[in-house]
Amino acid sequence: MPPNDSDTSSAPPVLSVTELNQRARQALEQDVGEVWVEGELSGVSRPSSGHVYFTLKDERAQLRCALFRTRARFVAAPMRDGDRVKVRGQVSLFEPRGDYQLIVEAVQAAGEGELLAAFERLKARLAAEGVFANARPLPFPPRHLLVLTSPTGAAIRDVLAVLAARWPLVQVTIIPVPVQGREAAPAMISALGLLNRQQTLDPSRDVILITRGGGSLEDLWAFNDEHLARAIFHSRLPVMSAVGHEVDVTLADFAADARAPTPSAGAEQLVPDRRERLHRLDRLADRLTRAERGRLETEAQRLDHLRARLRHPGEVLAARRLQIDQLEGRLGRAMQARLALERRRENHLRQRLSLRSPDRLVEQAGQRLERATLRLHQTLPRALARHRERLGGLARELQAVSPLAVLGRGYAILEDDQGRVVRRAADTAPGQALEARLGEGRLSLTVSGIEASDDGDRGGKATE
């Protein structure tokens, strides 16, 4: 039988492009997962969003990569076209365009893989423990700066030069420690502990700066020591880390309260620029001078205005006397007018009182009472006669419909011992006691027999 085009029960399901890309992305993420890939950087792009997009390639293939902003800030090495790097990431697919790509989590220069991998593992563990949670504000400017660094390195010269140029008032104490090699981390940890214990003896010590110049990853490895990061985290004195160049990032940077990209930048962040402060003071002095001048001018105008308003005491007294005389005249006229008004009011009240004298009111009330008594005597007999006539009519109507009137014509009402009216013979039984109510009096009866009536009912006989 030829196939029927309308029978689609066995046909495979038809997917949309979106559904297909979703399945492909899920398959890539589940089957391949996280991988390390080594290759050459190409087409490195850094848009304003902060993400980094690039292509990783070798001799025969290339791979699109995306390094998002949240992870890009932890990449210490610069990313330039032509650099050979190792990247760790999750294989995925960008569904809107169907692009196969690698979502990068970490980047390291090829050849430094073991150190960087150890760095990433230790950084993740310390971050999970909260060792990187320090963010205390640094005193600005500090009174006494404690610098942990090599006394012979270029970093201390840069720091002292910047401090002298910007804010020579700060007191600086150099704590000489090695900044490279196996002895560096223990020496810095010991110095941090000593400075924190001595802080109670000299409260003016308020900031610690840990610094050194740039170098290779191995040169800066002492600043990635786990115990040094914990010592910085637990320091009661706030700590700034200024290690290496701008691209160098160490665990000491994350554990410190503040981080500077270079030793010079750290010194600039710690103290203000005295020239800017002097310039600001000059501006403030100019503003103060202008404000004082404006205030003096305003007060001088106010004084001139008050002087113009000021009058001789004699003139003021004469004006007050005239005002008092005028007030006395107004008071006298007001009193006369008030007395006249009260007199008129008194006369009016007297007239009203005479019209409403109690004797007159009693006389008027007596007259009204006499008239009401006369009307009562005239209307009462007529009303009584009218009500008697109406009552007689109602009595006659009531007598006409009264059951007693029916009984008076010879009829009787039978009742059982419960006081219920007997209407049918069938409602009685032989020997049952009944009571007959007559027009005058009552009879006690006993049923001796029951007889059927003409309409099928039974009639009853009763004996007295």
Automatic annotation (TrEMBL):
<comment type="subunit">
    <text>Heterooligomer composed of large and small subunits.</text>
</comment>
<keyword id="KW-0963">Cytoplasm</keyword>
<dbReference type="InterPro" id="IPR025824">
    <property type="entry name" value="OB-fold_nuc-bd_dom"/>
</dbReference>
<dbReference type="GO" id="GO:0008855">
    <property type="term" value="F:exodeoxyribonuclease VII activity"/>
</dbReference>
<comment type="similarity">
    <text>Belongs to the XseA family.</text>
</comment>
<keyword id="KW-0378">Hydrolase</keyword>
<feature type="domain" description="OB-fold nucleic acid binding">
    <location>
        <begin position="15"/>
        <end position="107"/>
    </location>
</feature>
<dbReference type="InterPro" id="IPR003753">
    <property type="entry name" value="Exonuc_VII_L"/>
</dbReference>
<dbReference type="Pfam" id="PF02601">
    <property type="entry name" value="Exonuc_VII_L"/>
</dbReference>
<protein>
    <recommendedName>
        <fullName>Exodeoxyribonuclease 7 large subunit</fullName>
        <ecNumber>3.1.11.6</ecNumber>
    </recommendedName>
</protein>
<dbReference type="Pfam" id="PF13742">
    <property type="entry name" value="tRNA_anti_2"/>
</dbReference>
<feature type="domain" description="Exonuclease VII large subunit C-terminal">
    <location>
        <begin position="134"/>
        <end position="445"/>
    </location>
</feature>
<keyword id="KW-0175">Coiled coil</keyword>
<comment type="function">
    <text>Bidirectionally degrades single-stranded DNA into large acid-insoluble oligonucleotides, which are then degraded further into small acid-soluble oligonucleotides.</text>
</comment>
<feature type="coiled-coil region">
    <location>
        <begin position="281"/>
        <end position="344"/>
    </location>
</feature>
<keyword id="KW-0269">Exonuclease</keyword>
<keyword id="KW-0540">Nuclease</keyword>
<dbReference type="InterPro" id="IPR020579">
    <property type="entry name" value="Exonuc_VII_lsu_C"/>
</dbReference>
